[in-house]
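#lab-general

N.A. 3:47 PM
ok so I finally got the sequence cleaned up, no stray characters, all 117 residues accounted for. can someone with queue access submit it? mine expired

B.Y. 3:52 PM
send it over

N.A. 3:53 PM
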Amino acid sequence: QVQLVESGGGLVQPGGSLRLSCAASGSIGGITTMAWYRQVPGNQRELVALISNGGTTKYADSVKGRFIISRENAKNTVYLQMDSLRPEDTAVYYCYAFRAIYNINYWGQGTQVTVSS
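B.Y. 4:20 PM
back already:
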């Protein structure tokens, strides 16, 4: 089993910044892709950004140029630096990990990000 624990969410004003962290623990061998998703009540969960174990990244169009995903493999941690935040970024943000060797997906418990004045 893999446990993902997120931190760093909170309330921020429009234009502000937040940094989310997600630490993986447990049977972490074989994790390849890690990512951040977000979900607003009543909507489907959507991909925000992903990063491969080789460092290749992909972003949703809505966050390109504002968010940066990064990863410290030695610490089994993935980060999401969020700048120039907008009210429409308000959501619960979930950490995701894919353990390719077993073809299993893992999810964190989610952390609330609220962008409001």
